[in-house]
Amino acid sequence: QAPSAGASHGMFDLAPIAPNERIHALDLLRGWAMFGVLWSNLNDWYGYREPATALDRGLAWTQYTMVEGRFMTLLCLLFGIGFGIQLLRATERGVEVRTVYYRRSAALLAIGIAHGWLIWSGDILTMYALVAFAFVPFRTVSPRRTIIAAFLFWMPGFVAVMLAMRLAGLKYFMPSILHNATTNWILANGSWAQIEPIRFAAHLEWLGHWGLPFYCRILGLFLMGLWAMKSGYLRRVIEDPTATKRLLLGALIAAAPGFVWSWASLWSQEAGAMAYAAILLLSWRHPRIARLLRPLAATGRMALTTYLTQSVVCTLLFYGYGLGRYGSVGFTGMFVITLVLFTCQMAASTW
């Protein structure tokens, strides 16, 4: 079986998908997303020294223009595809899957809450689980209506909620607890018990500030993934290099305005995620490159474990109850940590 091909007969089988029946390209994209999420989170959530060298400045530019938001967007699309596979496999066989699906979503919600409150305040699993509950009614919606709903939630819905919050008197947010000298010192030097109130408050703060608008945006991205499944576009992009090249060209054109006008930065993030996906899918078609990328795909098959492990390791590296390196590592150091940790994760996932 060519590495770029998925199994048409296994996609909608209710049994667990065997390794030789997986859509391996999706595992590859998921693994790539997990690498980028780790790199971005290290720079965004654990403090950093201001760039002091040319390499630091280059990596800082890369973070802000090539990494920020793009990998999380890709992960959202892949989560939408994954949830869609669960629902569409059942629908194709006339099986009622809502009870199992809701139970799995509830379990993901519990994991996300525990992760955000007890390990790392930057958790995204809570939001994914909450969005998953709103995902079920769309399983029987036509592809055309699905993509219309996706667009409405993704951009107009996001903007409408932001405007509604401003009109409701939430124009100005309370000062963030994450950006003051006292909090930073506690994160770098405090015990787990001393850091826990900050972690708990920071998680609730993010949900309070951005929860509703990002709920709309993430639901829109999930629905885009569902549309790609329903319409057959996903399979065309994976199996037809012409379709993949068209996706790459369109994504590059769409991403260009974000490098010139700040208002297009959100659009540029989504387009950049699609460009990365297209480049990887084209690379995956070459057997020699595919062999090199297999550890990345193996990591993508263990995305949840990879994500949670990253949080545990990074909090132990940077928080006071571990090595206490919060705020003392530059962009170059963050990139080195990313490479070392993710290489270990690829090796463990392959094993």
Q: How is this structure best described in words?
A:
The chain has helices spanning 24-45, 54-67, 70-92, 98-118, 125-133, 143-170, 181-189, 192-231, 233-239, 241-255, 265-284, 287-300, 303-318, 331-350. Helices cover 74% and strands 0% of the residues. It contains 14 helices and no strands. It is globular. With 351 residues, it is mainly α. Helix 3 packs across helix 11 (265-284), helix 5 (125-133) packs across helix 8 and helix 6 packs antiparallel against helix 8 (192-231).
Task: Please give a quick description of this structure.
This protein has 14 helices and no strands. It has 351 residues and is mostly helical.
The first-to-last residue Cα distance is 22 Å
Q: Give the helix/strand class.
A: mainly alpha
Mean pLDDT, all residues? 88
Helix-strand string: HHHHHHHHHHHHHH
Unreliable stretches, pLDDT < 50, 5 or more residues? 1-15
Q: Report the principal-axis shape.
A: globular
Question: How many strand elements?
Answer: 0
Main pleated-sheet profile: none
Percent strand equals under 5%
Roughly what percent helix? Answer: over 70%
User: What is the radius of gyration?
Assistant: 20 Å
Treating each run of at least 4 consecutive H or I residues as one helix, how many helices? 14
